[in-house]
């Protein structure tokens, strides 16, 4: 793995040397007025690879980094940055280096702590869906169980940003559909490799989950993340299409390739108690959504639609931010990090972040995990090393996160 180094505030001067400063295109009037933001300024971009540029910007008293991706370039692709396991965390710089990306940013909010459930191990798993190479890794937790700020009305943990099999970026929703069939009985699947299951449901865990305990899946409720863990749970191991083991508590440890673990809570647990060791069981699931199927997708919170800030998006609280936007035709992807050091300003509100994305040319945009999670890592021109190019909050080190958006170029 190539070495990882940190680029501090001098990064802005490095990019400026690549070309004279130039103004970015103006945001649509509706979007700017909704956020009350000032116009943005951007250094001429430095090319990282075919179809990928990196530049530094200033906007409404804040500053940060912009990755622009031309998805019409056949040498470029965008995919999920992810740790070895769904239930684990890794630094963005490490994922960029390990997966061979040119650059990347952090993505979804995740199960970072469990102070509300003492003794329960945080899983590190993300709130929303994950798809890589058209393969679903996980589905979304219930809305009330998510980590992160309040979402805009009409949005949910099922919302994603991604790239379809047609090569165009877009926003969408991904809903889990599946069944557990045993004899004449058939039960719906309501979870896939996720840290929280809906009440009265059955969830599926695969080898992709990893070794972390599945206990968190039966904690909280459909109304409140802090609600207690239920004792009414059941776990079933399915191997070669038959029930191999049954337990009355969710377990931990690696799941063998090809095996499936079913975890039920409340009525879901009752349904699993009807199974017997040796019984034939069929488990099927998929993520479904309208439009072209996603080749890559990750959970995200929509804040910009058709060039305008969405109603209900917060316009009061400024913070360090990570965001992503797409052009109206889906041909361009914009990945933004807003610096969090004191000398870089106080960050942006979500409404300002939406307007910033619009100013770069985005029609639709999303908020990603911010604060100490905000990270932009890249291989700068002339170097094979992975550099941190955003300014981390004062005194902070790079945080391990659940996933990211990676840019790959050949």
UniProtKB/TrEMBL annotation:
<feature type="region of interest" description="Disordered">
    <location>
        <begin position="115"/>
        <end position="135"/>
    </location>
</feature>
<dbReference type="Pfam" id="PF09992">
    <property type="entry name" value="NAGPA"/>
</dbReference>
<dbReference type="InterPro" id="IPR018711">
    <property type="entry name" value="NAGPA"/>
</dbReference>
<keyword id="KW-0732">Signal</keyword>
<protein>
    <recommendedName>
        <fullName>Phosphodiester glycosidase domain-containing protein</fullName>
    </recommendedName>
</protein>
<feature type="signal peptide">
    <location>
        <begin position="1"/>
        <end position="26"/>
    </location>
</feature>
<feature type="domain" description="Phosphodiester glycosidase">
    <location>
        <begin position="237"/>
        <end position="408"/>
    </location>
</feature>
